[in-house]
Write a structure and sequence with these properties.
The protein has 10 helices and 54 strands. It has a 15-stranded antiparallel β-sheet that branches. Strands 22-23-24-25-26-27-28-29 form an 8-stranded parallel beta barrel. Strand 31 and strand 32 form a beta hairpin. Helix 1 (320-330) packs parallel to helix 2 (346-361), helix 7 (484-491) packs parallel to helix 8 (517-533) and helix 8 (517-533) runs parallel beside helix 9 (562-572). The longest helix is centred in the middle third of the chain and has 17 residues, at 517-533.
């Protein structure tokens, strides 16, 4: 763990001048006032407009006054939609790559229902061809003036010489707005000092606790003396370490400085971290960069895991080799990838085939997605936006020639295929669906290998019926995504009862813009558990490289959910679900086994100290793979450990699967006790040998104090796979409370090795048909009101004599006579109630003309 706070201030190399001064400047500005329209034609000078399909001339774009703009903000460029879109460009401006760039503008929209407005910063080469594009989030609906910001961003491509801003207003899907307006004002492109921050690992992901180094480079500042303050932050934002390192570099011919500072991070624990770099000097300057990194705990592989990612490309945002290595480290077993490429682009086919082979070496199964067709085939449809795959794959003579290169290259490497991406559900309601999918499958299999084909589906629709379905799986998605409880309900029973067609599901994480990180972690792990427990055959994250709802950041560095996803996928992927344990603190848990080892995922809505006695030493990991403290507990019974449990799921590892199977299977033949006191009763404890060999053992019962029993251990023997019902004799004392009765069962087993552990169970003392509840309240006159609620759940009337025993006072007696089905309320009024506060009151209800007795206690409260 990063414990010390390092505040090392390193001396800055002396030089003339003293403090950093940022060499920033305004590269371009347009307020659409008179200087921007010198010929008074209503069009900003030097701006251009795109014309073509979807961008008709009749859509009016012109400079106009806007009363909602501040008086000093100039005018606005107004786009009036009329069933078409518009795209406008600022003049290209020269740039210097040693700087970074910040683009800002004001934007106002009205009546955008089908369209969206997107502002982008585009870097161009000398010929005006785009090299890189950075876009702000799209804006829809009706919005007052708001400031849009892009960046700061930088570009290292040596071909980049110019930049321009582009505003595009276009449909988001198949339909478009017939009216609506978009207004643009106060356009700025600012040139700022460039600052980059990178780790020495391309993915910023480290295996184990390998040394990590970050390097900060700053250029485009006028300075002679400056330093970088580095800070290391954990997932909560707490600062763990800090230091200052001088910038070392040189001054260019234009007077701008370029320098670097390097920090070797101190050794630390596993987990997700952020490194922040701040340019510092005697004057405050606003130049900061932050990068994330992850230290992964080595965890066992899960070759039969259900979990995977859906990628947009094998080369974005990381090179294919780095991406395949990251996927192997992550615990993914499945990767979906679009593979429909232009037949003329042979290099693209080589890249996809190479990536599939790299995944195979990592033990990862690739699923080839046939989704959006290449440009040549797409042109035949003459439709904007995404094409539904069911429409594209109607005529084999049309689509088969463009698919054949991908099938030829990948038929020996890819066994699984999907028609349409994770959001495509175009086969819903398709006529004669089995015949159509069968035809497509037959066409795809002409390339020599069996094709396991899947299609997209939706939870609210019944699965398609077919005697021998040609699809191998259905890929289910929901918008908005299901919660863990909803997913469990729709999946139905546990994995022991799989559906006829394997169900693959799509699970995007909750967006970071709307939920806290602890909420997102708990939801992510909870849905992964629900999918695993209830029989999903495969579980995919649809956009893993997404700033808001991904596991990784858009630049390929790890997001805060990467390690929780990996920890869960590695520890429960490919395992067998065993069930839940009853724990003394009531914490929720799920247990999974693989071979002779097991893992338990545990959490509690309220922070709780939980006692575990599971037969082996255990290790507790949080969702990020960090070890959490465990305290050994001593006392009567088997040894145990005490752990802190809270709302975030944690993982208990090092468990014995046979011991956990024994504990989960253990039960009583009849968990309900008769409320008869002073008379011997017998419990039948059902034992099931789960150790794969014969065993011998002892059982010691630890019941409530109000029970009388023989405290000597009970001995037993069981052959491999044998069951035994062990009788346990006991008697209830007169003060035994009705209701739940917690008991502890301490075992010592000899099965190849010795095991000592405890099992917790709850028995019910009392009647199936009668319940009693007590409540107290201090009245204004100082007396204590005790309410007894007796509920009859049967059709036969019942009669009880109810006696309340206040400590140190005379008993109070009431009767319930012939109580029909329903509830009866009796009240006891005790004077000087304040003297009874905090003391325990005992109620004894004896059945009139019967043997049954119900005891209940309550602590007097205000």
């Amino acid at each position: 763990m990063y414990v010390p706070l390092i505040l090392t201030i390193l001396a800055v190399s002396p030089s003339a001048g003293g403090t950093p001064k940022l060499a920033e400047g305004l590269t371009y500005r347009c307020d659409f006032g008179p200087p921007a329209d010198r010929n008074f034609d209503g069009w900003p000078d030097g701006w251009t407009r795109r014309r073509g399909p979807g961008m008709p001339d009749y859509v009016r774009v012109a400079i106009a006054d806007d009363a909602e703009l501040p008086a000093d903000a100039g005018r606005a460029l107004r786009i009036e939609l009329d069933g078409g879109g518009a795209q406008v460009h600022t003049p290209p401006v020269a740039i210097d790559r040693q700087f970074s760039f910040l683009a800002t503008a004001r934007l106002r929209t009205a009546g955008l229902h089908e369209d969206s407005a997107v502002l982008s910063l585009v870097f161009l080469d000398e010929a005006g061809l785009p090299l890189a594009t950075h876009s702000a989030p799209p804006i829809t609906g009706t919005n007052p003036w708001r400031e849009i910001q892009i960046g700061p961003v930088s570009i290292s491509d040596p071909r980049a010489t110019r930049a321009q801003l582009v505003l595009r207003v276009a449909p988001r899907g198949d339909r478009e707005d017939l009216n609506g307006t978009v207004a643009l004002a106060e356009v700025r492109l600012r040139q700022l000092p460039r600052m980059t921050l990178r780790a020495d690992q391309p993915t910023h992901v480290y295996v184990g606790i390998d040394p990590a180094t970050v390097r900060c480079e700053v250029s485009g500042i006028e300075l002679t003396r400056a330093a970088i303050r580095f800070e290391l932050l954990d997932w909560r934002g707490a600062r763990l370490a800090a230091t200052e390192v001088p910038l070392i570099g040189s001054i260019s011919g234009g007077g701008a400085f370029t320098g670097t500072a390097t920090w070797h991070l101190p050794p630390g624990d596993f987990g997700w971290y952020e490194v922040r770099a701040v340019l510092v000097g005697e004057q405050p300057v606003e130049l900061t960069r932050t990068v994330s990194l992850a230290r992964m705990r080595p965890l066992p592989p899960s070759p039969r895991s259900e979990f995977g990612w859906t990628l947009r490309s094998e080369r974005e945002p990381l090179p294919a080799a780095e991406l395949s290595r990251l996927l192997g480290q992550s615990g993914a077993r499945w990767v979906k990838l679009p593979v429909w490429y232009d037949p003329a682009d042979g290099a693209r086919g080589d890249e996809i085939a190479s990536f599939a082979e790299q995944l195979s070496l990592q033990g990862i199964e690739m699923v080839g997605i046939l989704d959006q067709p290449p440009a040549e085939l797409r042109a035949a449809f003459r439709e904007p936006g995404r094409l539904p795959v069911a429409s594209v794959l109607i005529e084999p003579a049309l689509w088969k020639p463009t698919v054949s290169p991908a099938l030829t290259r990948l038929s020996l490497k890819v066994r699984w295929w999907q028609l349409g991406d994770d959001a495509d559900a175009s086969y819903l309601g398709f006529p004669d669906l089995p015949a159509k999918i069968g035809e497509i499958k037959q066409q795809l299999e002409e390339f020599g290998q069996e094709v396991r084909l899947g299609i997209g589906w939706r939870w609210h629709y019944a699965p398609p019926e077919a005697p021998a379905p040609p699809w191998s799986y259905l890929s289910y998605a929901a918008d908005p995504p299901f919660t863990a409880d909803e997913l469990a309900a729709y999946l139905g029973g546990p994995a022991a009862a799989p559906s006829a067609t394997p169900r693959w599901i799509v699970q995007p994480p909750l967006p970071a813009s709307q939920y806290s990180l602890p909420t997102r972690v708990r939801d992510l792990v909870g849905r992964m558990l629900a999918a695993k427990i209830h029989g999903a055959a495969a579980v995919f994250v649809p956009e893993p490289f997404h700033e808001d709802r991904g596991l990784m950041n858009a630049d390929g560095t790890p997001g805060p959910l990467f390690l929780p996803w990996r920890t869960t996928a590695r520890l429960i992927g490919g395992t067998e679900y065993l069930g839940q344990l009853t724990l003394p603190g009531g914490s929720i848990n799920q247990v999974f086994a693989q071979g002779d080892s097991a893992v338990m995922v545990i959490w509690n809505d309220q922070p709780t100290r939980e006692h575990l006695s599971l037969g082996t030493p255990v290790e507790l990991l949080d969702a990020w793979g960090r070890s959490l403290p465990i305290a050994a507990t001593a006392g009567e019974g088997p040894p145990g450990q005490a752990i802190e449990v809270g709302p975030l799921p944690t993982f208990v590892t090092g468990l014995s699967a046979p011991v956990l199977r024994w504990q989960i299977a253990l039960g009583f033949a009849n968990p309900r006790l008769a409320s008869v006191f002073g008379r011997e009763q017998s419990l039948g404890l059902v034992l099931q040998n789960s150790f794969g060999q014969g065993l011998g053992g002892e059982l010691t019962l630890v019941p409530p104090r109000s029970w009388s029993h023989d405290s000597r251990p009970l001995r037993f023997k069981l052959n491999d796979g044998e069951s035994l019902t062990l009788p346990i004799a006991f008697a209830l004392q007169p003060d035994a409370n009705s209701g739940p009765q917690p008991v502890r069962l301490d075992f010592e087993l000899a099965a190849g090795q010795n095991y000592r552990f405890s099992v917790y169970r709850t028995l019910q003392l009392g009647l199936d048909d009668v319940q009693i509840e007590l409540a107290t309240r201090l009245r204004e006159d100082g007396s204590l009101l005790v309410e007894q609620r007796l509920t009859n759940l049967a059709d036969q009337p019942v009669s009880f004599q109810c006696t309340l025993f206040p400590p140190g006072r005379r008993r109070e007696t009431r009767q319930v006579i012939n109580q029909e089905r329903g509830q009866n309320v009796l009240t006891f009024v005790l004077p000087d109630g304040a003297a009874l506060l905090g003391q325990k009151l005992w109620l004894r209800a004896e059945e009139i003309s019967g043997e049954r007795v119900l005891n209940s206690t309550v602590t007097a409260e205000r």
